[in-house]
């Protein structure tokens, strides 16, 4: 078994976290990751509701026992009702990312949950440590959805060298080789996102799985086009990595206004809607159940680490 700070702290079998993907990671996905031995997280995006968090938390708990909730600090500053709903559901872990977690860490700890924060720079690391988080997640630019601009490997090395708290890794990790690599480097576990997006337990538009299975690792784009089209006021330092389509190609070239973007965006159409996915997309070949994906990643990582590192 792969034992790390993460597995010991949370009482789980595998150092794998199902990433809190907004619009894709609901209670079934989170619960199945936890049931497979990791810990799954709900993606509580800005447009979700406290009622959604309450309902999906119950599903996750019934399926897998432990679960987590991922929140965006910049959005909590406007309305913290999603945090209230998350803590009321008694999660094992809460991810406080994209902004200063300081106003919220104490409330997470008071609820008995572990507080982690995804970081994209050394400045983010220092801010998260000052806020008192239990661990940080070095999230590289290969990640799907909103992320920073530094690649996972250089960022992870920087963070591991500087951090005084446990470090996890995220971005471009979707096989046993990827998990083995970050564990061997010193990470305590990994956030897995895109590798789960073809699983039947995800939520989201019907075309998303087909788009992902067709995509190569060169088919993603780092963009704020979908935020502008959907009137999502993400801070400009975090763009989103998504699978390129006609919508991204047309509007990057034309430089349209936000009003024009909103008029042309259509979430029901694969060439007009958004499918956030990371650069690991080219390694997602089949629509496999979550439990199969998680167990195979862990099994392959353990085999590789045992063979090459004696771990």
Concise summary:
This protein has 311 residues and is an alpha/beta fold. The protein is 41% helix and 15% strand.
List the helices and strands and how they pair.
Elements: H1 5-10, E1 16-18, H2 27-35, E2 39-43, H3 50-64, E3 68-72, H4 73-76, H5 81-88, E4 93-97, H6 102-110, E5 114-119, H7 122-131, E6 135-139, E7 145-147, H8 152-162, E8 167-170, H9 176-185, E9 190-192, H10 208-214, E10 220-223, H11 225-229, E11 239-243, H12 246-254, H13 258-264, H14 290-308
Parallel strand pairs: 1-2, 1-9, 2-3, 3-4, 4-5, 5-6, 6-8, 8-9
Antiparallel strand pairs: 7-11, 10-11
Helix pairs in contact: 2-3, 3-5, 9-14
Q: What can you see in these coordinates?
A:
This protein is α/β, with parallel strands linked by helices. The protein has two domains: 5-203 and 285-308, Aldolase class I (TIM Barrel); 208-264, no CATH class. Helix content is 41%, strand content 15%. It is built from 14 helices and eleven strands. The strands form two sheets. Strands 1-2-3-4-5-6-8-9 form an eight-stranded parallel barrel, surrounded by seven helices. A three-stranded antiparallel β-sheet has the order 7-11-10. It is globular and about 55 Å long. The relative contact order is 0.14. The mean pLDDT is 95.
